């Protein structure tokens, strides 16, 4: 095979040999550009776009965290004792607590039968207005339609 290629090369005129060498050089340059350089440039451009998106996301998250910390610290400062807060706020929603167990920075609450929408309104007020966190919530179907039992609600400050 090699000998056939050499014989073919020797049978070509000098002009044809030069033309084939130039074509081979152009082909090699084309392969380098299209196969290596262009994909690398595209990868670099994609990476720069990804870095820009990540920087924008980081900036947005930092702003959001700052806002949440500012809102949470003012709400927590005003909330006082967790047991007192729960007792004050539950009356507006007609919630009867069957058991309440305070511990360090949390409060475990059991509720026998409560309307689901009232429970959600109460929890929304506790989290958004008073800055507490719902650490755990176990809910099961109540006796009537639209009512639930809360076997465990753990609220943290």
Structural Rg:
36 Å
Structural class: alpha+beta
What's the CATH H-level superfamily name?
General secretion pathway protein M, EpsM
CATH class categorisation = Alpha Beta
List low-pLDDT spans.
75-79
Distance from first to last alpha carbon: 83 Å
Indicate the percent of residues in helices.
55-70%
Enumerate how many helices there are, as a single number.
Answer: 4
Query: At CATH's second level, what is the architecture?
Result: 2-Layer Sandwich
CATH topology annotation:
Gyrase A, domain 2
Main sheet: strand order: 1-2-4-3
Please state the overall shape, judged from the principal axes of the Cα atoms.
rod-shaped
Succession of helices and strands: HHHEEHEE
> pLDDT average, as an integer?
86
- How is the biggest beta sheet arranged? 4 strands, antiparallel
- What number of structural domains do the residues give? 1
* Proportion of beta-strand residues: 15-25%
Count the beta strands.
4
């Amino acid at each position: 095979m090699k000998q056939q290629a050499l014989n073919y090369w020797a049978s070509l005129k000098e002009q044809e040999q030069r033309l084939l060498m130039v074509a081979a050089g152009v082909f090699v340059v084309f392969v380098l550009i299209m196969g290596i350089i262009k994909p690398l440039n595209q990868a670099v451009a994609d990476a720069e776009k990804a870095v820009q998106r990540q920087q924008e996301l980081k900036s947005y998250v930092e702003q959001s965290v700052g806002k949440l910390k500012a809102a949470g610290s003012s709400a927590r400062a005003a909330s006082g004792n967790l047991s007192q807060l729960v007792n004050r706020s539950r009356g507006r929603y007609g919630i009867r607590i069957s058991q309440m167990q305070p511990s360090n920075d949390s409060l475990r609450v059991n509720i026998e039968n409560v309307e689901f929408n009232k429970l959600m309104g109460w929890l929304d007020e506790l989290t958004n207005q008073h800055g507490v966190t719902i650490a755990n919530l176990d809910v099961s179907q109540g006796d009537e339609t639209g009512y639930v039992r809360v076997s465990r609600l753990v609220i943290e400050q």
